[in-house]
């Protein structure tokens, strides 16, 4: 149990376009989902926390208008990178937890975004 | 500001060796410390530690938390090549409600 999927696993796009990444909890309902970004050989950096049905909470330095997060249901959260630029190229990972707080986070397999 | 520091940053061992990884933290109102294993893709959960001095064990992996020293260690005994991965430590502080602060990770390479 506790499987999280992400789609797509890999995406290449042109500069200026928008890209949507989906995160789904397949066998449980996730009250809270988290979005992380990981640069090569670096650790995961939390971008934002989203709770189902409410606005996401963004970490300092993360542009909310650039990284649009929607958590429309208990099994789906989306991250849209708007007007992507090469510096947005990164590995984006989501995690989901049933209850948030100290509940275990289960990570998705990540999405590799390359912006040309 | 919350901080999580892991050491060493990387190490190479031979199969059968024992590995000890360290994680130290500074966090407001500590709630839990978690260990993850990251191979090519997403981190997979290993342990969650909340109480000091109680060892958690899973097969050849074990971990313990020392709240007095603000640190944790992760041990891997009788290492195998499949243990090669980045091991991430993360801390959950009470003010952050589930937001994990990750360390930079320790890259472990196990050679045959």
Task: Give the DSSP E fraction of chain B (strand runs of 2 or more residues).
Answer: over 45%
Instruction: State the helix count of chain B.
Output: 0
Largest sheet properties of chain A = 7 strands, mixed
Unreliable parts of chain A: none
Task: Write down the oligomeric state.
Answer: heterodimer
- Our estimate of the beta-strand percent of chain A is over 45%
Describe this structure in words.
- Chain A is mostly beta strands and 116 residues long.
- Chain A is 0% helix and 52% strand.
- Chain A has no helices and 11 strands.
- In chain A, the strands form 2 sheets. In chain A, strands 2, 4, 5, 6, 9, 10 and 11 form a 7-stranded mixed beta sheet that branches. Chain A has a 4-stranded antiparallel beta sheet with strand order 1-3-8-7, with no helix packed on it.
- The N and C termini of chain A lie far apart (37 Å).
- Chain B is mainly beta and 112 residues long.
- In chain B, 0% of the residues lie in helices and 60% in strands.
- Chain B contains no helices and 11 strands.
- Chain B has strands spanning 3-7, 10-14, 19-26, 30-38, 43-49, 56-58, 61-66, 71-76, 85-93, 100-102, 106-111.
- In chain B, strands 2, 4, 5, 9, 10 and 11 form a 6-stranded mixed beta sheet that branches.
- Chain B starts with a strand and ends with a strand.
What attributes characterize this protein structure?
heterodimer, A: 116 residues, mainly beta, four-stranded antiparallel beta sheet, 11 strands, 0% helix, B: 112 residues, six-stranded mixed beta sheet, five-stranded antiparallel beta sheet, globular
Short description:
The complex is a heterodimer of chains A (116) and B (112). Chain A is an all-beta fold and 116 residues long. Chain A is 0% helix and 52% strand.
């Amino acid at each position: 149990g506790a499987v999280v999927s992400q789609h797509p696993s890999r995406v290449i796009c042109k500069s200026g376009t928008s890209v949507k990444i989906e995160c789904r909890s397949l066998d449980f309902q996730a009250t809270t989902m988290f979005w992380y970004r990981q640069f090569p050989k670096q650790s995961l950096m939390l971008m934002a926390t989203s709770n189902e049905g409410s606005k996401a909470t963004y970490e300092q330095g993360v542009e909310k208008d650039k990284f649009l997060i929607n958590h429309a249901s208990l099994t789906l959260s989306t991250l849209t990178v708007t007007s992507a630029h090469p510096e947005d190229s990164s590995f984006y990972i989501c995690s989901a937890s049933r209850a948030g707080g100290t509940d275990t986070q289960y990570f998705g397999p990540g999405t590799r975004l390359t912006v040309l | 500001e919350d901080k999580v520091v892991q050491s060493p940053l990387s190490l190479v061992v031979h199969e059968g060796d024992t590995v000890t990884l360290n994680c130290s933290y500074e966090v407001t109102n500590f709630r839990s410390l978690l260990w993850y294993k990251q191979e090519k893709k997403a981190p997979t959960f290993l342990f969650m530690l909340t109480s000091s001095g109680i060892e958690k064990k899973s097969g050849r992996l074990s971990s313990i938390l020392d709240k007095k020293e603000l640190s944790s260690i992760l041990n891997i005994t009788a290492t195998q090549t499949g243990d090669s991965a980045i091991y991430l430590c993360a801390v959950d502080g009470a003010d952050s409600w589930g937001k994990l602060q990750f360390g930079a990770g320790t890259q472990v390479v196990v050679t045959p």
